Amino acid sequence: MWKIKQVVDKVLEKLLIAIISCMFVLVLLQVFTRFVLDAPLSWTEELARYLMVWMGFLGAGIGLKYGLHMSLGILSDRLRGKTKLVMHVLSHVLTLSIGVLICVYGYKIMLSGRERLSMALQFKMQYVFVIIPISGVIIILNCLESIDNALKHARSIRQDNGQKTGIGIPKE
């Protein structure tokens, strides 16, 4: 299953690059039409804003995979062995529960956008809001993968070294 997820992660990373590139082009176009042609396009700002929303939600899920979110290492850096493993798993279980909340409430928000249209582009806001539950699923999958990796790593250290302590958490 994690092999499929790796492919999905690569696709998401490429999608993020495409979104950022589109945002750059849209903002450049907006600046050019506003200040050079003195005839700004109304839709470029709105589309760039919606792409930024997508970038934020997708980036949150991908950032979790690579451990890029801000954290306080004051406590976790001092922990060792099983205590560190438990803390790592517990933090990902809590993050997973937040992912579930994002899925549930994001789905409700997405459904609320079925009847609303965007101002300039005139498309259903549901297409903007669909990223919220998708992001929740990405967060859940990344948490499950991280927990699985940590437990596998702990088992391999225990088997390789015959130790019951010194369990480290793999860097993701």
Explain the overall architecture.
It is a single chain. This protein is mainly alpha-helical. It has one domain. The chain has 6 helices and no strands. The protein has helices at 2-36, 42-65, 73-76, 81-112, 126-129, 131-161. α1 (2-36) packs antiparallel against α2 and α4 packs antiparallel against α6. The two termini are 17 Å apart. The mean pLDDT is 88.
Structure characteristics:
76% helix; elongated; 172 residues; mainly alpha
Q: What summary fits the major beta sheet?
A: none
* Radius of gyration over all CA atoms, rounded: 21 Å
**What overall form do the CA principal axes indicate?**
elongated
Instruction: Estimate the mean pLDDT confidence.
Output: 88
> How do the SSEs run, as a string of H and E?
HHHHHH
Proportion in helices: over 70%
What percentage of the residues does DSSP assign to strands (E)?
Answer: under 5%
Compute the number of strand runs: 0
Specify the number of helices: 6
Write the layout of secondary structure elements.
Elements: H1 2-36, H2 42-65, H3 73-76, H4 81-112, H5 126-129, H6 131-161
Helix pairs in contact: 1-2, 2-6, 4-6
In short:
With 172 residues, the chain is mainly alpha-helical.
